[in-house]
Here is the input.
Amino acid sequence: MRTAVYPGSFDPVTNGHLDIISRGLKLFDRVIVAVLVNREKNTMFTVGERMEMISEATRNMLSERIEITSFDGLLVNYVRERGADAILRGIRAISDFEYEFQMALMNRKLLKQVDTVFMMPDERYSYLSSKLVREVASFGGDVSVFVPGFVEKRLKTKCGGRPDV
Ligand code: PNS
Here is the structure.
């Protein structure tokens, strides 16, 4: 049984994240989507809301092989606790590479048996990020091609007032 932890902020989940989850399911028997409980960062959605949106968005995928959880503190501690084999991350463009490379090597230094597997999302999502989605939505822009319909609705509700992007 090969298990990957797919960590992230997922604020909110985008079609790019969903693309990586479905690709991850082809390589791993189980994908644990782990939402970071970030105490410093002001997120638009609470951890509970973010997990709920990922659950809803993955309902029609091989959901018995996907687990949605949250983690606090060091990622490697969570990976160790869950006995996972790898960390799964998406790489969209060269600009992601440096940060991801640093994180992957640091994580491997902290937990030597863990490797990070990078997957490229469909090129339609190569410029997509949760941050941009929040920003576009906050100014009333159309994000319907970037997130599932129900996430778009939740963004609209949140953006009734001017959110902190
Ligand atoms: O979606 P994001 O914000 O790019 O995800 C970043 C994340 C959650 C993978 C990263 O910030 C993380 O792993 N944070 C947990 C704390 C930690 O382990 N930091 C050291 C990483 S080398």
